[in-house]
Amino acid sequence: MGVGHGHGHQGGAATGGHAGARHRWRLGVSFGLIAAFFVVELVVGLTSGSLALISDAGHMAADVVTLGAALVATKIATREDSTGRRTYGSYRAEVFASGLAVLMMLGVAVYVVIEAIGRIGGEPDVRTGPMLVVGLLGLVINVVAMVLLRAGAQDSLNVKGAYVEVIADTAGSVGVMVAGALILATGNGVWDTVVAFLIGGFVAVRAVMLGREVLAVLGQHVPAGLEIDTVTGALAELDGVRDVHDLHAWTLTSGMNVATAHLVLVEGADGGSVLRAGQLLLRERFAIEHATLQIEGHRSAACDAVSW
């Protein structure tokens, strides 16, 4: 019986392969831009009486916390374990940061909706000039941050969480400008409340979508786009393999898919050759760099006794 490991545990190698770490500078620049604008938007929102601006500022606050957590998470994720207790390192830190982003977004959405409901039937006095100026400034800053983060959103769930937040912020900035224009055109401040309500709903939907991805990773679901039956069939077709069982595949963190499997060999097959072929197949065809394969001469009764 042999065990093959298709992954390493050295700090340097891990850092180079961590998707979030490669895009850390994008998170840093976006954090600086959005943190500065949050202060401006909050002050103007409070002085102008605009719920749309205040709601967007609340979402900006969520962005500041989320981006800050993402920066910390990418640093923690690439830190070498000195305790000997974290055999997978700290890569899951970025997934937890994405979960924080979801909670922050949902919190902002609930606050905005409650405030909007409270304004129903009233006639809020809103100054449109500051709304339009700040909305335009926010749009410019969000577009810059969105362009920065977009390049890393496909590689890292952490960066994707920040990217989704910025997309929602961009929509919020557009909404603020639309609300200002409608109030200016109609003289009715109710448009500020309507747009704030729509922003809250949009943020909630985006949060739920990202939350499903986070839960899939934490629940160790099969990685998106990977069909487990296809992987089983491909391993079973390798020369020298008679049976494949106990195959598990999951995502450790963005860009790091993991798999384990038991390969039962035909009589006389070379275990070393089968092991190398299996690791190569998983890496090149299914993008699974971290694979642990157990080679067996026959199917063990101990394997059959395992219920999962």
Automatic annotation (TrEMBL):
**Sorted UniProt keywords:** Ion transport, Membrane, Transmembrane, Transmembrane helix, Transport
Looking at the record's lineage, which domain of life comes first?
Answer: Bacteria
List residues traversing the bilayer.
31-51, 95-117, 129-149, 161-184, 190-209
Coarse class of the protein's main subcellular location: membrane
SUPFAM superfamilies given for it? Cation efflux protein cytoplasmic domain-like (SSF160240), Cation efflux protein transmembrane domain-like (SSF161111)
Do the record's keywords include Transport?
A: yes
Keyword Transmembrane helix annotated: yes
Pfam family membership, one: ZT_dimer
Q: Which residues form the Cation efflux protein cytoplasmic domain?
A: 225-296
Q: Residue ranges of the Cation efflux protein transmembrane domain?
A: 29-218
What InterPro entries does the entry give? Cation_efflux, Cation_efflux_CTD, Cation_efflux_CTD_sf, Cation_efflux_TM, Cation_efflux_TMD_sf, CDF/SLC30A
Q: How does it sit in the membrane?
A: Multi-pass membrane protein
Subcellular localization: Membrane
Q: Per its UniProt record, what PANTHER family does this chain match?
A: CATION EFFLUX PROTEIN/ ZINC TRANSPORTER, RE54080P-RELATED
Give the record's family classification: Belongs to the cation diffusion facilitator (CDF) transporter (TC 2.A.4) family. SLC30A subfamily.
What is the name attached to this protein's record? Cation diffusion facilitator family transporter
